[in-house]
Design brief:
about 160 residues; alpha/beta; Cytidine Deaminase, domain 2; seven-stranded mixed sheet; 4 helices
């Protein structure tokens, strides 16, 4: 897919993302937005990074203050529901506590897990919410650009 001009999300859905990010603070939150327009639904997913870090700090050196790992069962359930309802997975979101809203090298690697040259979900936008002092500070939207083979920042439109 060539670069999208914008990423659209309903204002009510965006408010749920902000609420999730603030409630998860000081840890990263994560989840999906499935569908578009009136069919759009927010699906928060549990971040299990702290659990993995406690179990195996060598393999999972980062804790949930600076990383996220979606609970596999919840992740799968969202994808299966989207498929059953023939709805697109339109957005994957996560937060950056006490950091700016940017798409880090770690975020890119996680988004291109199966093939480092291509995203796992090429038609799905990535939203990063910055939360500072427990309050929403900023958001940035990123989409896959096939020409540049990378995620690029794009405009986010609340409808």
């Amino acid at each position: 897919m060539k670069r999208q001009a914008t990423v659209d999300i309903r204002a009510a859905s965006f408010a749920l993302l902000v609420e999730h990010a603030e409630q998860a603070y000081p840890y990263e939150c994560c989840g999906f937005v499935v569908g578009a327009g009136l069919s759009e639904r927010v699906h928060p997913v549990r971040n299990i990074q702290n659990e993995k870090h406690r179990e195996n700090p060598k393999a999972f050196s980062r804790d949930a203050r600076i990383a996220f790992l979606m609970d596999p069962a919840e992740h799968r359930a969202v994808l299966e529901e989207a498929q059953r309802q023939s709805l697109p997975v339109s957005i994957i979101y996560h937060s950056h506590p006490e950091h700016d809203a940017y798409f880090s090298a770690t975020d890119r690697a996680a988004a291109c897990l199966f093939d480092p040259a291509e995203p796992d979900y090429p038609d799905t936008a990535q939203l990063v919410l910055s939360v500072k002092g427990g309050r929403f500070a900023d958001v940035a939207a990123f989409v896959w650009d096939t020409e540049h083979k990378d995620f690029v920042r794009t405009e986010l439109i609340l409808s």
